[in-house]
Design goal:
Elements lengths: L2 E7 L12 H15 L4 E6 L3 H12 L6 E7 L2 E5 L3 E4 L2 E4 L8 E7 L2 E4 H9 L5 E7 L14 E5 L15 H10 L5 H14 L4
Parallel strand pairs: 1-2, 1-3, 3-9, 9-10
Antiparallel strand pairs: 4-7, 5-6, 7-8
Length: 203
């Protein structure tokens, strides 16, 4: 199929404190069902390792017969010090041009952080028609960094923010799916969801 959705959920971390549980799984199911009903072939991973996820990401982004690729991530996100900076007296000094704030954004897998820089080459060298990355995770605003204009990201919060999870779903994914069914464009969707998220105190 030339339309593919790749859904990744990380609900069951080893640390009890980090476990996200059913809401994370429910979010992944919402996405999978929505895009499957719109003609996409769905592939999914639950609690993969970093290497396992990257293996599949490499495969999908290298396929020139995929016109539309949706990549959805639900799980923890993190913000860690950018290794391309050095820190002197508590201030970050760039060694090379990268993150303006001195921090890299990550997706958190059971075996550690997958840094945005480590995915950048895959985005830049992709052979797909169009790629949309949807991330319902903390600190995800700039998780996708690319020089390609065929890659778009739609994230649940800014780099300095945390995503909010309710009893059944993350608020970002819940409202994303609720309003996507009403056939609004991406810019309208972003405006609506931002307002809804702000109502929950995330701004």
């Amino acid at each position: 199929n030339n339309k593919v959705v790749f859904v990744v959920a990380n609900p069951y971390y080893e640390s009890f404190r980090l476990k996200l549980g059913d809401p994370c799984c429910n979010d992944a199911i919402l996405i999978a069902e929505f895009y499957s009903n719109h003609g996409y072939t769905c592939y999914g991973l639950v609690d993969p390792s970093k290497d396992e996820f990257v293996k599949y990401l490499k495969y999908f982004t290298s396929q020139n017969n995929i016109n539309d690729l949706i990549i959805y991530y639900a799980g923890h996100g993190n913000s860690i010090r950018d290794k391309s900076f050095k820190y002197v007296n508590g201030k970050c000094i760039p060694c090379e041009k990268d993150e303006e704030d001195g921090y890299d954004e990550t997706w958190v897998f059971k075996d550690g952080n997958l840094v945005d820089d480590d995915m950048q080459e895959l985005w830049n060298n992709n052979k797909c028609g169009n790629i949309l990355v949807i991330s319902d995770s903390c600190h995800s605003g700039t998780i996708v960094e690319t020089t390609r204009n065929n890659v778009t990201s739609f994230c649940g919060c800014k780099d300095e923010q945390c995503s909010i999870q309710l009893s059944r779903n993350g608020i970002f994914t819940f409202f994303l799916m609720d309003f996507a069914k009403k056939n609004v464009n991406l810019k309208q969707l972003q405006t609506i969801i931002n307002k809804k998220i702000n109502d929950y105190g995330q701004n």
